[in-house]
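Form 12-C: Joint structure prediction
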Amino acid sequence: MNTPLRLEGVHIAVAGQPLVARLDAVVEPGQCLVVMGASGSGKSSLLAWLAGTLDAAFEARGRVSIGELDLTPLPPERRRLGLLFQDDLLFPHLTVGGNLAFALPAEVRPRAERHRRIEAALAEAGLAGFGARDPATLSGGQRARVALLRTLLAEPRALLLDEPFGKLDAHLRGAFRHFVFQHARERRLPMVLVTHDAADADAALAACGGRLVQLATAATGGPSSASEAA
Amino acid sequence: MAAAHQPLSPPESDARAARVPWPLRLAPRLTLLAFAGPIVAGLAGTALPAIGVLPALGGHEPSLEPWRRLAAQPGFATSLATTLATGWAATLLSAIVAFGWAALVLHRPWAARIGHAVAPLLATPHSALAIGLAFLIAPSGWLLRWVSPGLTGFEVPPDVSTVGHWSGWPLVLALLLKEVPYLMLMALSAMNQVDARAQFAAARALGYAPAAAAFKVVLPQLVPQMRLPILAVLAFSLTVVDVALVLGPGHPPTLAVLAVRWFSDPDVSLYFPAAAAAMLLLAVVAASLAAWLGLERWLAHWGRGWLERGARTSALATLGEAAGRFVLPCLGLAALALAGLALWSVAAQWRYPDAWPSAWTPAHWQRQAAALQGPLVATVMIGLLATAISLVLSVACLENESRRRSLGRATGVPAASGPRLRAATTDALYWPLYLPLLVPQVAFLFGAQVLLVRAGLDATLAAVVWAHLVFVLPYLFLSLADPWRAYDERYTRSALSLGASRWRVFWRVKLPILLPPVALATAVAFAVSVGLYLPTLFAGAGRVATLTTEAVTLAAGADRRVIGVWAVLQALLPLAAYALALALPRLLHPHRKGAA
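Section 2 - Result
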């Protein structure tokens, strides 16, 4: 689990317009690759490509691997890259505990052990006893934490963060950011954070270290190249 | 928020009553009266003869005699069993295929593309499709002709029974061809409601294979969304008459056909057991609807363990997706059935076992032209009247609702708070709309006919239009309700602020914006009217002939080429309405993009 995530020669274009031009990066365990850009700059497309869900309308080249394992040819479900979206996407037909059980690998058995693992995860997030609750009854901050727990319980090889702080109120934002980075660091997970918010980017780099990549907007920046800072 | 505003707002009822014009305020009540009243009266009018009470025929004392006669009818138990078996088989199979397809839509582009191809099938009347299917699967039908005599050695049609087979499989197949497209469309709109794609992606990111992600995350949310359409399919399949007349078993027939047969018998004493059969059918439907709701609960309960076990792949889900591939043979067979009808209608000579007609002719059309004219005019007129009345009532109800809501918002009246509450009050108001989709037609149409006879209205155009209205209005309202409620009221508010009157805003802003869904809902309603068989038969007392009643009657024994002419015209009429509905917004607003 503590192997670096490697992006080599990643190039994404739509209708002949390049969005991401030859991006190379190595993300060490516990560190963060921050990708910044305005909307339309292709940062979400980059994340979708990493996750394996990029729409066929895009042309993409390049290679993504974790340790020795080449992920590029794998379907999304076999990449085991944990995704955190702007919306928490908790499944409304399952309880909070059910959502977490859904993510826990089937190898964790028997039921009592599954239950124990879920309760432990909830307790660690300050949500002890929330297992039987309907996700709809939770506050925004609580839902965000459950979403992260769900992602982590699936035992991902890396974390892909698609503006996961964007919809939270200002006072929750800092706390949840801290929560995410702390868990990722503890598990030594490489992270890719996509955001248009400089505060998110600064917080990620301060907490985990790593690199910032700025994507030019396709419309204004001409043939965009990934410029670097930090 | 609401509490802070309340003291400033005028009393609720005054604020609303003052601003919504009275015809709009009356609309919901008027609509329900057009509905619930006759249905309840019709049910009572069928229930009384079922216990022996029908003074006009000498039944004064309640008795169980009608039930004894029904039970003593040879083959009664088989009738009941066939009814249950065919109704449930058609419903479960359509639901499984439609759900399997919905799962495929999430990750197979071909499945998503097929969704657009089903509209013509939705428009096709059940009976036209049933007749086409009969031509296809008969021993002398098209399917066997293709492989005969090459593969089968048949020089003459084999002496086997397909159409009317005792088991009812052709009936189930016909229902499947018609209900699968309907449930596909309903599943598509349900998927938009539950944000299916994002959740599917989230499940895959957690390591779930596509089929397992669809079946464990998306479908459990679709099932409750699809409750009403599935219940409607179940009630319809258990009680269908026209399709069963064409393709179903004859000796003994299904319960609905048995009841209709007795109701139409010259021996009027058969009215009593007929009413009993209709009431039994009502009980069968009620029990079946309850059974589906129970099944849904059991699935939800049993499914939880399945969902929370964490298995990333599932044989059950893979199997379910495989079932979804059956949409292709279903659509193919339906297309063949309709093509066969068209072919027969212009075939001069088509000897067995030729795969194609050996000569073509327009003669059948020319010869039928005179006979077609009356029923064609009647069909169009009844359809247009029923659709027009339904449209006015539906729009008035929806407009009343949206004006009250916007007034509520403007004056701070808290009534319109929260989408859940809003849906609940709306549902409570309009639940009788669903009655005609769930109550067996035969169970209230007979009683309604008795009332019409008493009022001297039977066999009049007005009676038939009303009978159609009962079925047309729910479909029109249900198709229009969602787009109407999704309309962005800010258009209206900004137009009002420019000084336009309410009336002008409605005609010049709201209606043009909503034209595509209005046109489509109108076409759906017209198609429903064209396809109605039993309501026309009963309210028209058998004397009002439409394309559908004539085609079903002819299907019992006329020349295939003649039947072909009638069924093709019957199928073309709704299609023309759909085509018009799609073209109209483009013609009126050629510069607007994305119309329809």
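Section 3 - Comments
The CA atoms of residues 197 and 528 of chain B lie 32 Å apart. Chain B has 29 helices and two strands.
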